[in-house]
């Protein structure tokens, strides 16, 4: 399945204009998830409604690292327009972009008010990245009050359980297992199950799941492992390989090549620099 494979978005009869817009937004975001950034950029013109323009900002941001600053500047201009700033898709994209930038306070400026399940779920992610599982739990409770069985509520619950650890790991594993039985297996689910296995010391099983995730990514975007999920697969394979006393150099090299800004790469570079300084001091 290559990145240009058409997504099944067969016409649904009697959609209201708002529902049709939501459908189009989801379809274009699906193409972004497949790495088809240029398709999204070319098909959404300057006259498109705000939600689609927001999706285009996300595609622009992810497609070209050299244009990130310009994209963020343009995104801020839209967010500064009172008539546009409350659009939930625009706020969601702002949250995603600033989370990528690791500017979590800025991300929360646009997402904290919630309003949609996606915004609440993104808040959970942001709080977990800030190591504030207490705030993430509060967001999860809001989601549970709205719809306890919603897919995003269950995913957010699994993420929080992974962050808390201990006995919660088994609960997270059951959620990912339930999803894997209900839906087609994805890289996100495979990584979720693998991380549970790593926490439980089941490294051989984790490696099998992660290699399956990596194969799916390679099959999807032939030679272009460049989205966040693929990066996490490589990072998890590095950790898993080290626990299995196997060489992790190939996965680490791929991670450095495709995702040089990944936290694992940065931490390793920092450790290597500290080691080199210590050696020079001794010499």
TrEMBL record:
One of its GO terms (biological process) is endoplasmic reticulum to Golgi vesicle-mediated transport. InterPro entries: Coatomer_esu (IPR006822), TPR-like_helical_dom_sf (IPR011990). GO terms for cellular component: COPI vesicle coat; Golgi membrane. Keywords: Cytoplasm, Cytoplasmic vesicle, ER-Golgi transport, Golgi apparatus, Membrane, Protein transport, Transport. It is found in: Cytoplasmic vesicle, COPI-coated vesicle membrane; Golgi apparatus membrane. Pfam families: Coatomer_E. It is a peripheral membrane protein. One of its GO terms (molecular function) is structural molecule activity. The keyword Transport applies. Belongs to the COPE family. The coatomer is a cytosolic protein complex that binds to dilysine motifs and reversibly associates with Golgi non-clathrin-coated vesicles, which further mediate biosynthetic protein transport from the ER, via the Golgi up to the trans Golgi network. The coatomer complex is required for budding from Golgi membranes, and is essential for the retrograde Golgi-to-ER transport of dilysine-tagged proteins. Oligomeric complex that consists of at least the alpha, beta, beta', gamma, delta, epsilon and zeta subunits. This is Coatomer subunit epsilon.
């Amino acid at each position: 399945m290559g990145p240009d494979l058409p997504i099944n978005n067969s016409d649904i009869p009697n959609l209201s204009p708002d529902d049709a817009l939501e459908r189009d937004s989801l379809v274009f975001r699906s193409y972004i998830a497949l790495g088809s950034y240029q398709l999204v950029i070319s098909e959404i013109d300057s006259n498109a409604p705000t939600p689609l323009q927001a999706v285009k900002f996300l595609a622009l941001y992810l497609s070209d690292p050299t244009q990130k600053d310009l994209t963020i500047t343009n995104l801020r201009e839209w967010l500064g327009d009172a008539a546009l700033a409350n659009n939930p898709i625009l706020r969601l994209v702002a949250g995603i972009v600033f989370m990528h930038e690791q500017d979590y306070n800025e991300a929360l400026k646009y997402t904290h008010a919630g309003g949609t399940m996606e915004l609440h779920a993104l808040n959970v992610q942001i709080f977990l990245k800030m190591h504030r599982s207490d705030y993430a739990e509060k967001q999860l409770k809001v989601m549970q009050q709205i719809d306890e069985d919603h897919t995003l509520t269950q995913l957010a619950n699994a993420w929080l359980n992974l962050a808390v650890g201990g006995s919660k790991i088994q609960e997270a594993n059951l959620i990912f297992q339930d999803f894997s039985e209900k839906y087609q297996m994805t890289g996100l689910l495979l990584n979720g199950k693998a991380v549970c296995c790593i926490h439980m010391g089941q490294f051989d099983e984790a490696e099998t799941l992660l290699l399956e995730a990596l194969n799916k990514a390679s099959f999807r975007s032939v030679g272009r492992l460049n989205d966040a999920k693929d990066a996490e697969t490589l990072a998890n394979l590095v950790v898993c390989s080290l626990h299995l006393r196997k060489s992790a150099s190939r996965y680490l090299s791929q991670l450095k090549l495709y995702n040089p800004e990944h936290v694992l790469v940065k931490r390793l570079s920092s450790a290597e620099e500290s080691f080199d300084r210590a050696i020079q001091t001794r010499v």
